[in-house]
Amino acid sequence: MEITIPKTSGALSALLRADFATQWSNRRAVMLTLVVPVIILISWKGLVAKFGGPFALSNAITIGLIATGLMGYSNSIARDRDKGIFQRLRVAPIPSWSIMASRLIVQLVMIILVTTAVFIAGDYYDKITLTPAEYALTYITAIVGGAVYLSLGQLIVGLILSPETVNSTTRLVYFLFIMVGMFGELNVLGQTVHDLEQWSPYGTVKTIVAAGMELGKWNNDTSMALLLTVLYIAVFSTVGIKRFKWSSK
Question: Who has the most CB within 10 Å: 17, 65, 79, 185?
């Protein structure tokens, strides 16, 4: 009896269709991910005149990226692992990397959607417009920034097996990033917290995203933030992948 092994491209295509279908079935959560940064951007309308459009846009995009990487990616991975979905997929004649690649491609689309939603809201409500080059570079920096939170989400599911604990942990980290990031950025919590926030994952992502919107203001601090962002990705993803288990049993 001849056994036909599907091509990797065909298997990946099938996984993508299934993962996008799952994402569509959870469209309420997707809409929440898109709406929260837009609401924050609108509520910060008064700060645009004081701190500039890139300040407001970059913070809103960063908050959306946190939700995508933590609330979206890590929780879905933990839930599917607990249901045994990964175990069933691993016995199929497809490479293991394609299983995670499909999930990451879906999150990449979410990063683009979040960034686009913030751009549209910024243009419509705050009249913030960028040049085509600045839009393009901001998409690139948003993808790099999104990789930080995807790798952080991978770290969390690599260290924690219980989906309930993963959910509570991501919510806590999400809350801390937003509170410390937003208020630290405004220097409400003191200079020490402000300095720590600047070089935290929130601060470095916000810095490179903002720099993408103002090409002429890229400086040494921005380059250092980019370097530290890449370092965060490398550390989080390396530990997260190394410690990841395909089953929660």
Answer: 65
CA 163/CA 177 separation, integer angstroms: 21
* Close Cβ partners of 126 (under 8 Å, ≥ 6 residues apart): 41, 42, 45, 48, 53, 56
pLDDT at 185 over 70: no
The residue among 102 and 181 whose pLDDT is bigger is 102
Amino acid identity of 131? T
What's residue 2's pLDDT? Answer: 45
Phi, psi of 66 (to 5 degrees): -60, -45
pLDDT tens per residue across span 76-102: 888 888 888 888 877 766 777 788 888
Query: Residue 177 class from Cβ within 10 Å (0-12 exposed, 13-18 middle, 19+ buried)?
Result: buried
Q: Which residues, including other chains, have CB under 8 Å from residue 86's CB and lie 6 or more apart?
A: 80, 99, 246, 247
Within its chain, how far is the Cα of 190 from the centroid? Answer: 27
**Which spans in the chain are helix H?**
8-25, 27-43, 45-51, 53-66, 75-82, 85-90, 96-125, 132-159, 163-185, 191-198, 201-213, 220-243
- Report pTM: 0.86
